[in-house]
Design a protein that fits this description.
Layout: H1 5-15, H2 17-26, E1 48-52, E2 55-58, E3 63-66, H3 69-72, H4 81-92, H5 103-114, E4 120-124, H6 127-142, E5 146-150, E6 195-198, H7 203-212, E7 217-222, H8 233-246, E8 249-253, H9 264-269, E9 275-279, E10 289-293, H10 295-298, H11 320-332, H12 335-359, E11 364-368, E12 371-375, H13 384-389, H14 392-404, E13 407-408, E14 415-416, H15 423-438
Parallel strand pairs: 3-13, 5-6, 5-7, 7-8, 8-9
Antiparallel strand pairs: 1-2, 2-3, 4-10, 9-10, 11-12, 12-14
């Protein structure tokens, strides 16, 4: 069976002393010893010196196969030659240009070619910024104050939407309404008055709540979580039909799900949202966010003439280095690459199922595109409450055991695949997983 957490942590500190010392020293000058919260992991983070292809190399001289993919952002892997060359060319032209570059139209056309729902695009600095802007857009477009989102879904560090990220509760006994609960302290008072929380994968309840609130509801924000939750395509299609009928805007969060297919999750589900928000892979490794939609909705961001009542900008939004990296990534992110990733995904998905079946440990595997998640439970993974009830303690020990064996997957998004990976990398992961579960 898997070793105890205490034993694994002791072994980890023995083989990563430089990372431990770096983290311990940084605790004096950085909250938690890290530059951002997403880097912290038990018992402490490892510090990376170099990343290339699907490999990471830490300051202790250890090598890892990277199944984290920088929080899913590096779908072409690290240091892809085309992306590196594009960045070098851009930097050689200056770090900031003070005016538009021709890269803006070029990358916009890449979006338009892929997404029938998009004929205009606007760049931001992050997925969070895109989420904030989209929330303002839907209210300004419709004149309505309320926004609906699904329990458990994260749409960035956004005061309008960062509610009910954990297990939820109903407003009162017998009510179908979920109590809006701010995710963090410090959020604006009374923000819950403008948010409606919907249950994932429950069309009957969703329809009842949405119809009751249609006159106040500006939009529904939705992330289908491909590879993380097992949500039927029909549920997404139902949401599009319902929002269209009731004249409510439908915003699809493709920050992570764009990596699920050449045309994102909207291509898989066959829907055309009113507004789409992006991040991560569309910047090729640089800080990035983007918003896309038809000109009917995007025109509210057009302040070249009379003011529209809404403005969006940012000193570094759409800078030419980010656009260069993003454009190179999108041009090289072909259907052939997605087919390759899908083949690896299937190999990993089936391999994990077989291993857990052999050990008689209940496990549900969810995968789509290039993300694979395994949960220690026998319940269908159709909402975040089910994930919360799975055996997370055992899974944390498995993940730390894998890290000790050179398998890096540390951001809570499961096993994230990248183009440089080959079948041998998947086999290495599976062999190590089997050994860990069989360990005496």
């Amino acid at each position: 069976m898997v070793k105890s957490l205490e034993k694994l942590q002791t072994e980890f500190q023995k083989v990563t002393p430089k990372s431990f010392n770096e983290w311990n020293n940084n605790k004096k000058i950085l909250p938690g010893g890290v530059i951002k919260g997403a880097y912290f992991s038990s018992p402490y983070p490892i510090y990376i010196e170099k990343a290339e292809g699907c490999k990471l190399f830490d300051i202790d001289g250890r090598e890892y196969i990277d199944f984290s993919n920088h929080h899913t952002a590096m779908i072409l892997g690290h240091s892809h030659p085309a992306v590196i060359q594009a960045v070098k060319d851009a930097v050689n032209n200056g770090l900031a240009l003070s005016a538009p570059s021709i890269l803006e139209g070029q990358i916009a056309n890449e979006f338009i070619k892929r997404f029938p729902s998009i004929d205009q695009i606007r760049y931001t600095n992050s997925g969070t910024e895109s989420s904030i802007t989209a929330a303002r857009m839907v209210r300004a477009i419709t004149g309505k104050s309320k926004i609906a989102k699904f329990a458990g879904n994260y749409h960035g560090f956004n005061d309008s939407l960062e509610f009910n990220l954990a297990v939820t509760e109903n407003v009162n006994s017998g009510s179908e309404y979920i109590k809006p609960t701010p995710a963090w302290d410090g959020m604006p008072e009374h923000g819950e008055k403008n948010i409606i929380i919907l249950p994932m994968n429950d069309p009957e309840t969703v329809e009842m709540i949405v119809r009751e609130n249609q006159n106040q509801l500006a939009a529904i924000f939705f992330d289908g979580k491909p590879g993380i939750l097992d949500i039927p395509i029909e549920f997404t299609q139902f949401l599009r039909r319902l929002t269209s009928e009731l004249d409510i805007l439908f915003v699809m969060d493709e920050v992570i799900s764009f990596r699920s297919s050449h045309t994102g999750y909207q291509g898989i589900s066959g829907v055309e949202p009113d507004i789409s928000i992006f991040g991560k892979i569309v910047g090729g490794g640089m800080p990035v966010g983007a918003i896309g939609g038809t000109s009917k909705f995007m025109k509210i961001l057009d302040n070249s003439g009379h003011p529209t009542g809404l403005s969006q900008s940012g000193t570094f939004a759409g800078n030419h280095v980010t656009l260069a990296a993003g454009l190179a990534t999108m041009k090289n992110l072909t259907p052939k690459v997605y087919a390759h990733l899908d083949k690896l995904r299937e190999q990993l998905h089936n391999g994990i199922i077989n291993i857990f079946d052999d050990t008689n440990i209940p496990c549900k595997v969810v995968s789509k595109g290039s993300i694979v998640n395994a949960y220690i439970t026998n319940k269908p993974i159709t909402d975040f409450e089910t994930i919360a009830s799975s055996n997370q303690e055992l899974w944390d020990r498995i993940m730390l055991s894998l890290l000790l064996r050179g398998i890096y997957a540390r951001d809570g998004m499961g096993f994230v695949l990248s183009e440089p990976m080959r079948e041998i990398d998947i086999q290495i992961l599976l062999e190590n997983l089997k050994d860990i579960l069989d360990e005496k």
